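Page 37, top half.
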Amino acid sequence: MERAQKIRDICGRFRILVIGRANAGKTTILKVVCDSTEDPEIFNSQGRKIKSTVLTPSEKRGQHNIENEMVFRSNPGFIFHDSLGFEAGDTDELKKVEAFIAQRSEQTKLQDQVHAIWYCIPMDDTRPFTKAEESFFSDCGTGRVPVIAIFTKFDAQDHKAYRALRNEEVPIENAGHQAALRAEQECQPVLNRIYESRYGPKSHVYLRDMHKPKAQCDELMEKTASTLNDEVLKLLFVSTQRNNLKLCIEHALTRDIMREIVRFGKTQTLDKHASNVGSHGMKKDDIFRVHCGVMLWFPHIVVNDSEHNPCGMTIS
């Protein structure tokens, strides 16, 4: 089945703009997303590889360029652009982001557009939601590009909630179980302010313990996929990410298998004695179509639709 490859040929790679202050945990998140321990390779807008310290605490602001593309060798299907985030009273970076989003939205080719925005808000900061965040969600329209608010380093809030519970004389074990929920409840006023803004996010996620080995960001993948209204982009995103097999299975089931079951139940009138009909009543062509449709959601699996090996699979 060549449809998945054709989609990649048309769309190129999935492009994400990552916004957040220094030390917001952006690099850590991207490494988990791409299952990498190495820093990304940096390319300029002409596609030439450059040396850079973008996204590291020691970055030199003069070398930063939002047009630069960050690509991880472990998963080159994603392209990331970095904005340094907005400091209080600094409107220059906000204008750069607005201009970048506008310029990308005017591109005629889907592969050159921004497909999603991840806005990282570090929750280990004493003031996680500042005037800078208010400015973005109030003034920066992103058009059809969905924004996912990522509350990074949220384990800091868990620890804070745990201490509060212990001060209230909640037993240690109970406090440990209740801390995460208490932390999210304490964050609700901030969350409400963001969603009530003129350009509020489409979704949000709390990320904890991303610095630890075997850290996962399944919820970020799921929330991002859920905000994509374009089916081609959704397929591109789900099949590009490699660390959430459950997400691939869910989309394959809900968007291909169930759709074909409904279609079959409503429209099929079959002759079970025909040579192209299986014992279950479905035509072999229908089975093949379902099989190929399902496999589109799974990364790096090639469906061989040759005459000698119908519905065969190989891992690329």
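Page 37, bottom half:
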Amino acid sequence: MLASRNCVQGLGEHIPLKHVTLKTSHLKRRPLKALHASVQESCVQVETGTSATFHPQSRRILFASAVGTCLSLAGSGVAAEPVIVQTKLTPNQSLYDPKDPDLVDAALMMQDGLNAADVQAEEAVWTKIIDKYKDYDRQWTADIVGRAYGNRGNARTRQGRIEEALADYNEAIRLSPWSPNPVLNRGIAYEALGRYADAAEQYKAVIAVDETDPAGWNNLGNSVAGMGNWEEAVTYYAKAAQLAPGFSFAAANEALGLYQIGQTTRALKEMRALLRRYPTFTDMRAGLAAALWAEGLEGQAESQWERVDDSRYKDRDWLVNVRKWPPRLSEALIAFLDLRSIPKQA
């Protein structure tokens, strides 16, 4: 719908459905002393660990794979169960024995998963961890295995295998009810299946435990935009951009949303500002070209279009059904491609 409205990282072979945030959990390599949780930045969150410590998850911005045209919507009418992130259940990782050889081995395997050469190899590592440790009776089992399920869900999301990813996120949430990461990532899976209301509930649960989470606000904007509530979506994108000024996709989503609700002048200003900061931001460049064309500024539109280096923006089906731009902007770009003028919006 909007410039990468939900994000999955490392998808060179995929283009964003929306700018999404997936979250990942990791363990970082450090001296073996204490194990504490860590998560990278995300629109998708990934779980990682180290033979030293787990850090409280950070976020990583990722692009959701272009799966819009190949997903089955089977089951999309079944409402998701309410979710509450139970932070009070967070395990005391200082009680983990850093000398436990199995824990050290699991941490090193998680590092292998994060450093995998490709997404298939990465998925294989998460599966190996799950199969090896899921039946262990240790203080850390649910923590480690829950992270592995969440990360495998991310790998499957990036391959467009959304139903399988959803099953992994469900298991991650069952094992680690204290973690917001698989909840946020499950929201992304629901979005890919067109279950926008269910997705919104996941993001609201994430925000309930951390109102300063830009990924949660950005993705909440994605879900309500999916339901056609663009004015509400713009407020959420603005909140995400305010919380994380460097989160360019949230600002891009806000700009495209502003254009959709008729705030053309402000939208054009935001698009230009983003392109000054990020000159190679192709989605914004194409969006600006479309908006200028609709304003009758044909020469300026052509000038911007010359710098769009992604041929997929010429594909109407991709633009509407995979990229999922806001309707008004999609119409403007299609008119540009057809060399057809369109009436200005009052």
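Margin note: The first helix runs from residue 101 to 114.
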